[in-house]
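Appendix B, example 12.
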Amino acid sequence: MSQDVSSTTPEVGQLAETMNASESLVSGTTNSGERAKDTEERQVMDIAGEAPPVPTFHENQSVQPIFATPQTQGNVGTSSSSSSSAGENLVASEPDLVGNMEEMEMIQEPISQQLPLEIAKLSPREPEIVQKEQRIEEFLRALEDVYFDYDRFGLRKEAYPELVANAEVLSTQLSDRTILLEGHCDERGTESYNMILGKRRALAVKDYLVDLGVPGDKLQVVSFGKEKPFCHEQTRECWQANRRVHFAVK
């Protein structure tokens, strides 16, 4: 015949009651912890605001992303567009978007703004070149051509004072220039004969200039014969103009 353990054995009964009380305490503590956790979560939601619902998308719906655009004050602003049912899809911009845009604008500087810099580098040389050409032209204008008789390479009497004046110009303004003494002839005679005659005329002028003190290494002789006439008319005056020694700068 079985008997109740709590009624038959006082110690065992007390132990059972103690265990039941512990289970109740643990259960109460657990329920209290869950209630405290729920209360804390509700307080956090009350402070931060209700979380936005997660948008849902359908397979056939199009999504228009939101792109960040640079502002004038260096901040990144956003402009958005979305369909009524698709929701919003935010695309984050790079942190240095504004800096990259500024660098691109600097790289794409108009060429018209760069040209003045290149012109400024070349402009100082232009006046020097122009002045040099002007000095050469003035120098050559001061040198008189020497004329010769028909089929002759000896100097005329009137050629001597002209060569003296030329020697003075060469002595004062020659500097590092090399002077070409070009011998020319008229159209009469053969080409080979006129080439020799033109060279002899140029040598006659050089020899006299050297006697006047002009450095011989600054004088170079060349003959064109009848290849480069100054006058193309078949007259005595034109032929006389072509029988000459002309001064040029090498």
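Confidence is low (pLDDT under 50) at residues 1-9, 47-51, 72-95. The radius of gyration is 56 Å.
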